[in-house]
Structures are given as structure tokens and as C-alpha cells.
């Protein structure tokens, strides 16, 4: 597989920040919070602690919240928790607490829990953690849960949280382990996901399903496509979907494990390859390195991507803002870089580089050998 060689677009904005702790290098697990807001700070804002209508506090014996996903639709919040999905109205609260108006309890069935425990997982892991929470259309939510390491997806009414139709497999749409990172979005009725597809979390994938196009995925177990990726965010831009992630850099395999940040893209209307080449796999997949660094004679790189916004307007330009940190074995620091999506798209029209053998270094691909279409 070939990757663009051209340097990533230089950021329009670079803000240096202080990082209080070292970055966590686990792949592809979610990191713990970098910090927790103090209680006196929270007193200035309404909070959600799991209370429903008419209750002054959560019922005795209620478990702490384990919030995984939050989706805002106009003046309504949908909160994906462990075993629960809440609908919370954002009208001006009359107290210091937000309360849910509707609650969906979605637990794993006993047989799934038993199988999960037999595979060596702890009781607290064998629950249904909501890992995908999307608006499918104006009246329907699409929700996926880890379901005791047997992921499942279902549609629910946005008004009543009642199920709509039958549930479907969550494989390649939702991770098995609630600690594993994943992203998902709907575009033109198709679901685009980036996650791991198996119990052992060794098969990372960018996957398209549902809709009227064939199901496609990235090549399986090929480290030139992915090497221990941590998926952070996905955005739709033009005719492509862009995935932001970090991974182990194969182009630096002569060193110890080097983490770099990437942006990959796929064409929304990709029909896949032929029976001989890339059958049921992406033919439009490309990736490039994200460069967030302090320029100078010797660049100082912030290689560990932590968070990315959607596409926003900055000075009239369509950009995404991204938070980066340094690796845990480096000088602690973080930065916010802005990437112009027009320039990001232009990078994928640049030159490629390739590795001709496992022992060779990565070299530019001659222009006459670049495939057409790219």
C-alpha cells in the first residue's frame, strides 16, 4: 500500500499549552481523564447525576454513572451510559441538577454475560457500554453497545426511546471492549466506522455498512494500512470521509515504536475492488501524517493526537482543530493545531512513497508509476 509523501498542511494556528501529566500510550484503549473538575466549579453549572423526574437524588444503591457517549440534538441531550441511555432536555433548569425525561435500560442478557465471564473477563466488563450513539434520521437514533463483549446495534425512537425494528450485529461497528477507542458517523444513509472487529482487538478496521452501497473494509492484518491505531474522530468533507487517528509509524520501523498522528480518507461512493484485487475492500483508502510542530532548525513535534473537532469556520476557512501531546517518554507538553480541510484534501493529491521490501527504507514513487485513478 502506498501513502502520500507530501508534507501535511502547515497549521494556521498553533497554541502551546501546558500538559499536567504524561500522555498514555496504550493502544487502542481509551485513556483516563487528564483532570477532574473540582466540586466548587461544578456548583456554578447544572449537573447530571442520573436522577429522573421528581427525584431529589438517585435511588439508594444506584451505581455511579459510566458515561461513554453524548449526543446533542437541538435542545436535547442523549447520554449513553453503562446499561442505560438517557434523554435530557436542555431547557433552563430550575435547580442545579439536570434530570432525564426518558430512560432506556439496555442490559446484556445472562447468556452473553456467562460467555463473557468464561472468556476471562471481569464482572464489571461484562456489561453493555454504549459506544456508538448517532442520529440516523430526524426521528431515529442508532445505538451500539459492547454487550458483554458481543457487540450489538439497534435503532430507537428519538422521542420515546422505544426500539425500531430488530437489532443487528455490532461487529466492525462497535468495539468488544468498552476501553477500546472507536468512531462512527452516518453519511448519505451509510454508516462509516473505525474500530476493532474481534475479541482480541488485533483487527483494526475502517468499515462501511448499511445504506445501498456494498460493505467495504480495510485490508486485514496489514501493518502498512494500520499498526495499533487509536481512532479519535471522523468528519465528512465533500465526497470523502476523513478519519483522524494515531498509530505506530511503519516508516520509522528501524527505531523503537514511534507514535505519529494520521489522517486517512475514503471515498464515500467507493464500490470496492475486483474479485482478484481488493475484493470487498477500499480502493480509495489513503493516509498522510498530521504535522503539529514548532517550526525551526529542528522541529519539535507533538505526535500524539488526543482530540479533534468537527469542521468549523476560522477566518472564513474550513478547519478542524486538534489537540496533540508529546509521548510519555518526551518533554511533557501539548498544543492545539488548526488544519485547513482544503489543504488537507490537497495533500492527498501529492506524491506517494513506498517500501519495496521489509528491510528497505521508504522512498518516493516515480510519478509514472502512480496508479490512475489514484
Summarize the structure in words.
- The chain has 374 residues and is mainly beta.
- It contains 3 helices and 28 strands.
- Among the domains are: 65-172; 228-373, 7 Propeller (Methylamine Dehydrogenase, Chain H), CATH 2.130.10.10.
- Strands 2, 23, 24, 25 and 26 form a 5-stranded antiparallel β-sheet that branches. A 4-stranded antiparallel β-sheet has the order 4-5-6-8, with no helix packed on it. A 4-stranded antiparallel β-sheet has the order 9-10-11-12, with no helix packed on it.
- The radius of gyration is 22 Å and the shape is globular.
Helix content: under 10%
Unreliable spans are 5-27
Radius of gyration: 22 Å
CATH C-level class of the domain at 228-373 is Mainly Beta
CATH architecture of the domain at 228-373: 7 Propeller
Mean pLDDT score: 85
Under CATH, the topology of the domain at 228-373 can be stated as Methylamine Dehydrogenase, Chain H
Largest sheet: 5 strands, antiparallel
> Structural class of the secondary structure composition?
mainly beta
Could you tell me the strand content as a percent range? 35-45%
In whole angstroms, how far apart are the ends?
12 Å
Question: Helical stretch count?
Answer: 3
- Spatial shape: globular
CATH superfamily of the domain at 228-373: YVTN repeat-like/Quinoprotein amine dehydrogenase
Amino acid at each position: 500500500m502506498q501513502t502520500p509523501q507530501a508534507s501535511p498542511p502547515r497549521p494556521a494556528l498553533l497554541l502551546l499549552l501546558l500538559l499536567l501529566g504524561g500522555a498514555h500510550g496504550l493502544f487502542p484503549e481509551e485513556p483516563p481523564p487528564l483532570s477532574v473538575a473540582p466540586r466548587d466549579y461544578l456548583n456554578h453549572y447544572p449537573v447530571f447525576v442520573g436522577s429522573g423526574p421528581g427525584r431529589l437524588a438517585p435511588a439508594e444503591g444506584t451505581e455511579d454513572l459510566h458515561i461513554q457517549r453524548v449526543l446533542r440534538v437541538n435542545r436535547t441531550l442523549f447520554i449513553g451510559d453503562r446499561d442505560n441511555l438517557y434523554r435530557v432536555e436542555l431547557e433552563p433548569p430550575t435547580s442545579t441538577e439536570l434530570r432525564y425525561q426518558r430512560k432506556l435500560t439496555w442490559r446484556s442478557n445472562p447468556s452473553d454475560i456467562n460467555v463473557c465471564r468464561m472468556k476471562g473477563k471481569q464482572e464489571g466488563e461484562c456489561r453493555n457500554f454504549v459506544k456508538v450513539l448517532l442520529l440516523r434520521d430526524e426521528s431515529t437514533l442508532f445505538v451500539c453497545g459492547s454487550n458483554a463483549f458481543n457487540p450489538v446495534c439497534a435503532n430507537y425512537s428519538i422521542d420515546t426511546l422505544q426500539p425500531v425494528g430488530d437489532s443487528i450485529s455490532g461487529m466492525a461497528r462497535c468495539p468488544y471492549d468498552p476501553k477500546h477507542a472507536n468512531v462512527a458517523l452516518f453519511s448519505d444513509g451509510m454508516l462509516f466506522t473505525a474500530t476493532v472487529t474481534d475479541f482480541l482487538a488485533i483487527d483494526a478496521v475502517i468499515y462501511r455498512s448499511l445504506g445501498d452501497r456494498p460493505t467495504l473494509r480495510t485490508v486485514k492484518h496489514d501493518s502498512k494500512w494500520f499498526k495499533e491505531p487509536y481512532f479519535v474522530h471522523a468528519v465528512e468533507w465533500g465526497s470523502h470521509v476523513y478519519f483522524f487517528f494515531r498509530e505506530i509509524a511503519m516508516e520509522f520501523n528501524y527505531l523503537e515504536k514511534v507514535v505519529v498522528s494520521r489522517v486517512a480518507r475514503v471515498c464515500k461512493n467507493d464500490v470496492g475492488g475486483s474479485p482478484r484485487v481488493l475484493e470487498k475492500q477500499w480502493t480509495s483508502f489513503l493516509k498522510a501524517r498530521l504535522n503539529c510542530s514548532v517550526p525551526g532548525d529542528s522541529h519539535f513535534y507533538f505526535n500524539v493526537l488526543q482530540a479533534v473537532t468537527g469542521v468549523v469556520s476560522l477566518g472564513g476557512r474550513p478547519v478542524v482543530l486538534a489537540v496533540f501531546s508529546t509521548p510519555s517518554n518526551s518533554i511533557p507538553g501539548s498544543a492545539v493545531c488548526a488544519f485547513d480541510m482544503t489543504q488537507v484534501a490537497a495533500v492527498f493529491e501529492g506524491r506517494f512513497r513506498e517500501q519495496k521490501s521489509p528491510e528497505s527504507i521508504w522512498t518516493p514513487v516515480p510519478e509514472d508509476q502512480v496508479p490512475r485513478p489514484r
